[in-house]
Amino acid sequence: MYKAPKSNVAVARAQDASQQAVWLIRLFALALATALMMYAGAAFAKGAPESFSGLAKKLLPTVVNISTTQTVEGRVGPEMPQLPPGSPFEDFFKEFFDRNGQQAQPRRATSLGSGFIVDASGFIITNNHVIQDADEISVILHDDTRLKAELVGRDPETDLALLKVTYDKPLPAVEIGDSDQLEVGDWVIAIGNPFGLGGTVTAGIISARGRDINAGRYDDFLQTDASINRGNSGGPMFDMDGRVIGINTAIFSPTGGSVGIGFAIPTSTAEPVIRQLMKNGEVRRGWLGVHIQTVTDEIAESLGLDKAKGAMVASVIEDGPADNAKFKAGDVILSFGGVPVPDTRDLQRIVADVEPETTVDAEIWRDGKNKTLKVVVGELKRDSEQLAKLAPETKEDGGERAIEPLGITVAAITDKMRERFNIGDDEGGVIVTDVSATGPAAEKGLRPGDRIIQVSQSDVKEPADVIRKVDEAKAQGRKSVLLRIQGAQGVRFVAIRLGDG
User: Fold this and answer.
1) Which of 1, 22, 73, 231 has the fewest CB atoms within 10 Å, i.e. the most exposed one?
2) Catalytic residue flag (residue 129)
3) CATH entry, 286-379, from 3.50.50.60, 2.30.42.10, 1.10.150.120, 3.40.50.720
4) What are phi and psi of 44, to 5 degrees?
5) What is the pLDDT of residues 330-347, one digit of tens each?
6) CATH number among 3.30.70.20, 2.30.42.10, 1.20.210.10, 3.40.50.1110, domain 401-497
7) Can 291 be counted among the known catalytic residues?
8) CB–CB of 248/128 below 8 Å?
């Protein structure tokens, strides 16, 4: 059948519709690709804010300047020069200095720092070192109102102090954030009173986390390149949501000014302290009653752990919480109260955060397997060293023997050995009498006079016990053997590489 051809107009319209559909598809694809790129950029790289002015305007009223005064001993006048005995000038100078000498006069010293309001009723947080030894403490608000402050409580361990002021209306308070959510590279701003200049805002990033600057046993500082100087101490560090995530505390500086390395106490450390100071005016910390040491790769391998982790119990304090819970030297604490323990420093902070008299579960590694112990946490006393009292060991005589795989020579503890190495009558184990300078024991710092108390977590009483445990470790394919040593450094565990001897 004959069909008439389509008109040119119909053909053109069909082509136009087809082209429009193609262009719509292309535009949709382009828009989708752009959206995906913007989403990916937002997810993986948050750019610098255009301005910090909005945050600064909101947060400046929550930050205060702190001024303290204290009485210090005055300086005496010039001292009489040193003259040879019998000098003809001695009487002359003595009479002059007696007549014109100055008496030491006390004087008033002033220091400046920063702080921030944590409660609208007038509670303020600052560093302990800002108000330490102060006779009077004044707080200057953002509008230059000066208020007398009362010291509510302090915690030298974390360098934090809580002040209280009275005001006729509620004060603007900060919001405490979670420092654990911060990552290296995140933007932060610091506000404080550097060199007494008043409310000053600086910005930077988190340069590092978990810094230990040897300030105390709970060191876990945030490091930042935001400019922090003298006078910033006690001031807040904010995240981009305007929440406090750190308290500016210290700087590293050869010159005394900012060189881009500042340190802040994270709120993960500070928040429990602030809470206790507001509630009780003091801080009560948990205490486990153990001496601990780091789990090295060698120690982990000798104990059958899959990797170096946890905190190893070097000794247990007699009648302490751990002793009552049946902890043993050589246990590796893997978690405490449900919180994983990555290393020894973390264990100290985790235990300290537990309320005393609380019963918690402690997961430990013992004899090649996991075990759970229940422990009633004690209270850490500042005025007590709470040292370990080591149980006496039994003694048994034996000959001197060289243990070549370790590079040491050991002997039983005889009366002669006790006299030679000044060993107490109730101290046991075997004595190290010689250490090969090129052996594996020397690499770990063993010295003649050290006592080996345990090998592979088993007590040893004579050289034959040490040899047997070393042979067992080699037979099991171990690359190292774990020794418990009593020496000048105290009691510690040492994993020594097994040599070819």
Assistant:
1) 1
2) yes
3) 2.30.42.10
4) -110, -15
5) 999 999 999 999 888 789
6) 2.30.42.10
7) no
8) no
pLDDT of residue 465: 85
Structure tokens at 217: 């046993």
Q: What is the pTM of this model?
A: 0.61
For residues 168-190, average pLDDT = 94
Of 487, 471, 394, the C-alpha closest to 435 is: 487
* CATH topology agreement for domains 176-280 and 286-379: no
Which residue's entry shows tokens 């001993």?
Answer: 73
Cα-only R_g, the chain: 34
Q: Which amino acid is at 68?
A: T
Which CATH number is 176-280 given? Answer: 2.40.10.10
- With a cut of 60, say whether residue 100 has pLDDT above it: no
User: Which of 83-87, 189-193, 367-371 has the least mean pLDDT?
Assistant: 83-87
Q: How many CB atoms lie within 10 A of CB 243?
A: 17
Buried-exposed string 369-381: b where 16+ CB fall within 10 A, e elsewhere = eeeebebebbebe
Tell whether the model's pLDDT for residue 92 goes beyond 60: no
- Write down the domain spans for the chain: 176-280, 286-379, 401-497
DSSP 3-state assignment of 94?
A: helix
Average pLDDT of span 12-41 = 56
Catalytic residue, from 114, 142, 159, 465: name it: 159
User: Is it the case that residue 248 has pLDDT exceeding 60?
Assistant: yes
Of 67, 114, 129, 331, which one is the catalytic site residue? 129
| C-alpha to C-alpha distance for 385 and 382, rounded to whole angstroms | 7
Catalytic residue among 67, 114, 233, 258: 233
159 catalytic per annotation: yes
Q: Mean pLDDT of all residues in the chain?
A: 81
Nearest to 125 by CA among 287, 211, 235: 235
Cα–Cα distances in angstroms (integers) from residue 340 to residues 179, 202, 315, 345, in the given order: 18, 36, 21, 12
Is the pLDDT at 281 greater than 60, yes or no?
yes
Q: Which residues of 467-482 are buried (b: 16+ CB within 10 A; e: fewer)?
A: bebbeebeeeebebbb
Comparison of pLDDT for 388 and 121, the residue scoring more: 121
